[in-house]
Design brief:
The protein is mainly alpha-helical. It has three helices and two strands; from the N terminus they run ββααα. A hairpin with a 5-residue loop joins strand 1 and strand 2. The radius of gyration is 44 Å and the shape is rod-shaped.
Length: about 170
């Protein structure tokens, strides 16, 4: 724009041409834009690398804990793996899960042993009663009061075992 103040005084504001028409200005702007573009690409690349590293450091232990939980769910308590992390909370969680697996494995062994013991304890009196009844039916033995009393004792023993199982179940 051109402003006049009297006869010989004129002020020109702005350029006579566009900024892109002058070669040095155009080169300067293109160079600046290229630098911005390159720095944006480099920043994105560095950001992606940092994201993967941070994600790996934080999520790797969480995925390991998740795998351990699935192993426990499958009942393979002794296959629980150690978890390595720099985060105290994740280490505590992993330790708690490992301890839980050890206790669950111990409880599972106790349950199996208890089941086997109960089966044995129930099988013995039932076998005695069954063999005596078969002997009576086949006519090998006469049902005497002593033999019938023995059968009654075995039935009481069975009843007591079943009552103890009921009490145990109630206490649990």
């Amino acid at each position: 724009r051109e402003y006049s103040y009297g006869e010989n005084r004129t002020i020109i504001i702005g350029r006579s041409k566009s900024i892109f028409s002058a070669s040095p200005d155009r080169n300067f702007l293109l160079t600046i834009n290229f630098i911005y573009l390159v720095s944006a690409v480099i920043s994105l690349f560095i950001g992606m690398l940092l994201k993967n590293k941070i994600k790996g450091n934080f999520l790797r232990p969480i995925y390991a804990i998740q795998r351990n939980a699935k192993i426990i769910e499958e009942g393979k308590y002794h296959k629980v793996n150690d978890v390595d992390s720099d985060t105290v909370e994740l280490l505590e969680l992993a330790g708690s899960i490992k301890n839980m697996a050890i206790r669950l494995e111990s409880q599972e062994e106790l349950r199996k042993r208890l089941t086997a013991d109960i089966a044995h304890e129930l099988r013995t009196p039932l076998s005695t009663v069954n063999s005596h009844l078969e002997a009576f039916i086949d006519g090998v033995w006469e049902p005497t009061p002593d033999r019938l009393m023995l059968l009654q004792d075995e039935i009481r023993r069975l009843t007591s075992l079943i009552k103890d199982l009921g009490d145990l179940s109630y206490m649990e």
